[in-house]
Specification:
alpha+beta
Length: about 450
């Protein structure tokens, strides 16, 4: 390492940074580089665990001075190919949260997670457009689009409600950008994520809501085909925008910490949330309940703070790979192909296959719309495989085969937050958007300093 970067330069950086600086072999290095997805084990040249915006500035300036690429990590949920020889900036310590109830706006640090935001917002009767899991990072989720399984069909994508962003750009400057302040940089950050700088703070809108009606209906695996067909039929109805539904086929491991009805079982999981009356939701989900006795049915009136109960996402890090497709529609032929997969999925390598309906405000294009391919989709098909390399490889092959079979109804692009390890910018942005992003990249990061990610926009 010292042949690449002078030791004195590292010593100077350590003195400048209020947080911590790690190099390979240091105690704390492995902990700092570890993410939620254990399949991505990077080997950065050094790690700057930033305590505040000034630390991020120091790290970016150091990387630029030594012509080293930069990567950014908060929780490390999304995988991308393992890389080495770069400067990794971790922002997990920057978890400040301030709620402005009068403006219905939250201002949070670059390392905040949704669990940090929901509680304070609920204290004043407000809710953010958060995702399904409380431990996911706010910035990456939001600037990748932000699909709320509770509020999305009513209010649209989280990225459309960003008010302002504080970002450190490749020149080491701290900029606060908004629609009327450096609008070009604001626009490309909203959708382009970490291609243009390190976000150290973000402001976004909140909405009045303190409870919802929802939860999960867990049905035996032999109902999986019927669950998929019921979901397709339901999605063709004129549904209230406040009603959200998705279904997931789950191959659960035989772990002792799982409840006995779930342990080692193949299940069909119906995820439901509704912002209207309980009775209205019960009528809509009655066809699922008619498929037979549920193993567990948690659908009930719940405080918004219980949002995680709808999807019940895993909370512990694991090695996994994921694949997805945006579907324009879900005709009978597409459902037949999903049903054929369901008939052989029990005990197979694929851990989860989810089908989620979009629609409502998620298909709207506001006047200030930012790059987001998912606006043109009616559904997302997403799957993941958890386990050792041979299992993951088998699961990825099965998922890719299924998604290829669904390609006649695909939009041809991907939702940024559901991309897999090998997916690139060309898979998430259309040609015209890529041209715009590359022009902005040439202006704000001509050396492509911020390129350690899985959707890099090359300025060339």
């Amino acid at each position: 390492m010292q042949n690449t970067v002078p030791a004195q330069a590292i010593t100077d950086l350590v003195r400048e940074v209020a947080g911590s600086v790690y190099v390979p072999g240091d105690e704390g290095y492995a902990r700092e580089i570890a993410g939620f997805n254990l399949r991505s084990t990077h080997e950065p040249l050094l790690v700057v665990a930033a305590a505040h915006t000034g630390d991020v500035q120091a790290a970016v300036s150091f990387a630029a001075a030594h012509q080293l690429p930069v990567g950014v990590k908060n929780t490390g949920h999304q995988p991308f190919p393992a890389q080495e020889g770069f400067v990794l900036i971790t922002v997990g310590a920057m978890r400040s949260v301030a709620i402005d109830a009068d403006r219905a706006v939250a201002r949070v640090g670059g390392g905040a997670r949704w669990a940090d935001v929901v509680g304070p917002a609920q204290e004043v009767g407000l809710a953010p457009l958060n995702g399904s899991a409380p431990h996911v990072g706010v910035v990456g989720y939001t600037l990748g689009g932000g699909l709320s399984p509770l509020l999305g069909r009513v209010h649209g994508w989280a990225v459309d409600h960003v008010v302002s962003i504080e970002v450190v750009t490749a020149d080491g400057r701290v900029r606060r950008v908004a629609r009327d302040e450096e609008p070009e940089l604001f626009r490309v950050l909203c959708g382009g994520r970490s291609n243009f700088g390190v976000v150290t703070e973000i402001e976004f809108g909140l909405f009045p809501l303190s409870s919802f009606y929802g939860g999960g209906i867990y049905l035996p695996g032999h109902t999986a085909e019927d669950v998929l067909r019921t979901f397709a039929e339901l999605s063709r109805q004129p549904l209230p925008e406040g009603f959200n539904c998705s279904v997931a086929l789950l191959n659960l491991p035989p772990l002792p910490e799982l409840p006995e009805p779930f342990r080692g079982k193949f299940l069909a999981h119906v995820r439901v949330s509704h912002l209207g009356t309980d009775a209205e939701a019960d009528a809509l989900i009655a066809p699922f309940r008619a498929l037979g006795p549920a193993l567990v049915d948690t659908v009930s009136r719940q405080p918004y703070s219980a949002f995680a109960a709808v999807h019940a996402d895993p909370v512990d890090p694991a090695p996994y790979e994921e694949s997805s497709a945006l579907l324009a529609s879900l005709p009978d032929e597409a459902v037949d192909r999903l049903a054929a997969f369901a008939r052989t999925a029990a005990g197979g390598p694929v851990t989860v296959l989810e089908l989620r309906q979009l629609g409502g405000a998620l298909n709207a294009t506001p006047a200030h719309a930012v790059p987001l391919a998912a606006r043109q989709a009616g559904f997302i098909a997403w799957g993941a495989t958890v386990g050792p390399p041979p299992v993951v490889a088998s699961g990825e092959l099965a998922l890719r085969t299924l998604l290829d079979e669904l390609s006649p109804w695909s939009t041809g692009l991907l939702y940024t937050n559901f991309t897999g390890r090998e997916d690139q910018a060309e898979d998430t942005f259309d040609v015209d958007t890529l041209v715009d992003l590359r022009e902005a990249k040439r202006r704000f990061d001509p050396q492509n300093l911020f390129r350690v990610n899985n959707h890099n926009v090359d300025p060339q």
